[in-house]
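Regression report. Comparing outputs from two consecutive submissions.

Submission 1:
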Amino acid sequence: MDQEKEQTTQEYEMTFLVKEGSDILCIKKAIETHGGTPTLEGEVRTITLAYPIKKETMAQFGFVRFTIDPENMAGLNRDLELDGECLRTLTVSGPFAKNFVAPAQRQHKEPTREKQERVSDAVTNEELEKKLEEILN
């Protein structure tokens, strides 16, 4: 039975906007209610909306990856549309990159020496004028 269930489930990623001050548990609860299993949850940040959505100008933005039976997606989307806390959702189906690194965990790379050397190869105005005079004469 487990093999049959695994074959019928598909991986999805849902980005969402929920009202500021709301808990994102409403998203995970809706997924679990429809037989889904959350597998990865991204960082949730408060953002200013470009335009009001349901009279809200600020929202919490995040994403969650989950597996669910594709037949249950219509019910999940309908329930989230009717939920007063959820402003917007966008769901895409997998496959997804396996090596996701949260922005807070990414390491800042230092500029390579090649870039630094290219900057030092810059020509001064005097050298450019001298070269122009050679070309024109």
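Submission 2:
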Amino acid sequence: MANLNIHSQTVSAQTVSSGVLVIRSIPLVLIFMRLAVTIVLLIDSIDGSTSNWFVPMLCTGTFLDCIDGALARRIGVATKRLREADSTLDFFMVVVFVICCWLTRRAAIAQAFPWLVASIVLNLISFLPAIIKYGSLPPYHTYSARITGVFIFLGAVELFSISRVSIFMNLALFVGFISQLDRVAITLILPLPPNCDVKSFWHALQLRGGKL
């Protein structure tokens, strides 16, 4: 009977451990799902047009982007590597978005396209200080980056729904430029790569002063 109880406890412990492992792996699974959605969006636009599923898939990718990081922080698995993967995928999604714009809505974005390309180039440049200083990408997840993401999403839905570029895209470019400056400032302020999200250069100053 004692051996049976020990076996039951062992099986129960293994079951709990497996369940915890599955839960802790969900944020990474969501990142891979978002990568898959992004690739599908690119494939859908290769022929110069988009299907009726393009905008719903775009919304799905954005929704996954909203919940993967929040869930990772909630269950305590927001590691540096996971945050780097999330930030890298964010940038990849923006690049794919610009490619899709060029392939399927070239006339609508003709005037804004050079600014979109310039934004990507400046984004890459803003990564360099962290790569040089820390040897890794800067996974800060700033407020300005999140606001930029919101405007990009709104502008993308409008563009791919009714082929129109409005103030949302202009705001995305403007706030995106501020976000890039914010990223560089944070890197210059912090002597070491942070183990948490840094919401702005002000938070970086507080983190360096030991107030956070």
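Expected: both submissions complete independently.
Actual: both completed, but the second showed a warning that disappeared on reload.
Relevant detail on submission 2: The radius of gyration is 21 Å.
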